[in-house]
Amino acid sequence: xxxxxxxxxxxxxxxxxxxxxxxxxxxxxxxxxxxxxxxxxxxxxxxxxxxxxxxxxxxxxxxxxxxxxxxxxxxxxxxxxxxxxxxxxxxxxxxxxxxxxxxxxxxxxxxxxxxxxxxxxxxxxxxxxxxxxxxxxxxxxxxxxxxxxxxxxxxxxxxxxxxxxxxxxxxxxxxxxxxxxxxxxxxxxxxxxxxxxxxxxxxxxxxxxxxxxxxxxxxxxxxxxxxxxxxxxxxxxxxxxxxxxxxxxxxxxxxxxxxxxxxxxxxxxxxxxxxxxxxxxxxxxxxxxxxxxx
Amino acid sequence: xxxxxxxxxxxxxxxxxxxxxxxxxxxxxxxxxxxxxxxxxxxxxxxxxxxxxxxxxxxxxxxxxxxxxxxxxxxxxxxxxxxxxxxxxxxxxxxxxxxxxxxxxxxxxxxxxxxxxxxxxxxxxxxxxxxxxxxxxxxxxxxxxxxxxxxxxxxxxxxxxxxxxxxxxxxxxxxxxxxxxxxxxxxxxxxxxxxxxxxxxxxxxxxxxxxxxxxxxxxxxxxxxxxxxxxxxxxxxxxxxxxxxxxxxxxxxxxxxxxxxxxxxxxxxxxxxxxxxxxxxxxxxxxxxxxxxxxxxxxxxxxxxxxxxxxxxxxxxxxxxxxxxxxxxxxxxxxxxxxxxxxxxxxxxxxxx
Lengths: 294, 353
Fold this sequence. Notes:
By secondary structure, chain A is an alpha/beta fold. Helix content of chain A is about 35%, strand content about 25%.
């Protein structure tokens, strides 16, 4: 099965108030049918990013009802990225996914937080879920979770095929972005749609089944660009190739599940994990630890 | 095995032990290695600023062990001329001594493993061959690299070889020596290639960190760098410098695929990383790879995570860099831990894979 996927990202000139059902409908009609769409809202509209979490909370119901209707109208799996959920005096950053019937079928709270996020009242999730769909098994990486390799590993061990990643890292260069979702895709063999607040919006796959073995399915450069330019320059080429429509950027890709299965069979990275080593080493040696003047 | 075959094997083993006897190797080293470099600092001081060399080495089958000794001594000498405190040889470095096997010639270097096995005229597997010659390679390698480390007063990671462990199983084992020639540790590869498992190799189940005068050193092998767990465990055991010897049988070198090993792991675990690479051909496999030296983003120019890399991927090179351990120790990182998730899933989820 080939899954048609799309990321839509608002450009600088777009505001949250533009996000009407009509506009979304026009966009989706223009881009043709896709099976899975990631349309990040809270981390990509500039006017929303400037707001504090308490100010954003009210948008939760507006976003969920709009995206539920859109998913149903267009018959696709649709994620608006994350919403902010209030919990007592704290908040969760919760990524959500609607199915083609418009039902909210997957909610994943961010699991790892920065110090600043904790000081701002964000709370950590306590569960990691994978949703079984006709497109394959779907999971989320939310915010800092993109940089904690255990999250992608645990998704993989639960069978994930497609990961929706909302990377919120600020002021990063291409190398710092490669250390996140791209590295997780390579050590776990899944597909990922990544929307990056300060980087490139990318569709990833294992190097072996991506153009020129770059690990980037879309946008796509040429062979000579991929093989001769360093990653910094190649990323600039990719940025120039992103399609634009009505003030939105579009990154579209096709995820071939058969090719993914084939690479997992030919080179089964998961089978070569070493549980005996990890158990012998113990839980404590596998936990991330604070590195402050160690 | 018939009586004649047993006698023949016993005879060849005795012959090879005689050819590789320490007294012969030592005499050769004394006559032929360059003048002893006096680098007494490595024996006495704890250093925070060190020079490391990652070797990109061309694969050869050595029929003559003295030629192997000369080559290893030459690489160590060249490295110490660059001021090396630590020299890192690549994966399968010790397999170059497979050329000692009776009947092996340089021509066979480019021939497939199956062809090599068929020439033995016996129904032999790779592990049979390694079980036969492995003890000889181990003994000779331990002596050669201990002598070189002592003579040049440097820390030496000798690279690895597929060699028998104490339990008789064949492992991919790497060795680390101190500047006084002491064997500081041996590390068995913990995550195998499908090819290696197919050959009957066993995987190690321990990761070692060695405290030295030039920091806390670890040296897992090649594929171990594909798994974040390796570096997480080592970093939590206090590793500051993680060496990864590789021999990557990928005829078509690609920078992106090369990037997904040690470079990614260094960024996740925030240690220094040193990658040594084997290039060239052996038994139908073409090895490519770029030796390199890596550091967390915060400690590299342009936040690339790369200190330096070899200019080529298929030729012999020395890659040199200075590492400042103090900077690494002072690096402040805002890391988090989600104990709930780990306690819920570990170790069940790994067992159920």
